[in-house]
């Protein structure tokens, strides 16, 4: 190790107040990437929910007094009005900025596998399903991406709060769906199972056996038309995105639950801009 590189480096743990954060940003943030408003908002919300933890991530400042790392966290402290503790490293070589943020970011699935001891083979799918479920509960159009993003802490909390239901859905999926026969992704099917089984488990299983497995279908019905539509989406005969597929499932579920039959395949799909999203009932 070259001690000359490190002999002037100063490492400390400090409480950064909103005023401190503003001062650092005003005087030291001369050369940095653009601010991501969504990332700052994510951090601010975590701080306000008291989910922000001291995890050892540092605020890094060069020997020239330039902020190298930490502008989003400091901006969040300033905007939230809540002081936080950080490791502060000063007098770093200015060229270390080339090596910052090059590591793989942990996502919800990674944290479920590490913190909640979920099987790695299912962790990403469960994380995606939790995001779908949360969007549905909040009345948002269904997908694992886009607005309403959950933090890793929220994903873990949601898993722990709904573990019994999630285990039920995972077990059903593992027992009834083979990988080569799946007409939706794991996260999509788990998301649907979570939403529908939280309303009525028996109706959910009956519905999913028909749509996902093709069981108990003796004549053309809403469920068989939905299954054909989803198969066409998977094989590329029809163009669709995740939101359209998932909202189509909810549309048909609501129709079946209300005792209505969709008789034409053209009426099965959910069309953004034409159909309004309705939560499962």
Strand order of the largest sheet: 1-4-2-3
Number of strands: 4
* Sheet with the most strands, sense and barrel status: 4 strands, mixed
Q: Which structural class fits the helix and strand makeup?
A: alpha+beta
Strand content: 5-15%
Order of helices and strands: HEHHEEHEHHHHHHHH
Radius of gyration: 24 Å
How many separate helices?
12
Global mean pLDDT: 91
In which range does the helix fraction lie? Answer: 40-55%
What sort of overall outline do the alpha carbons produce when their principal axes are compared?
A: elongated
End-to-end Cα distance: 64 Å
Uncertain runs = none
Describe what is shown at a glance.
The protein is α+β, with helices and mostly antiparallel strands and 281 residues long. It contains 12 helices and 4 strands.
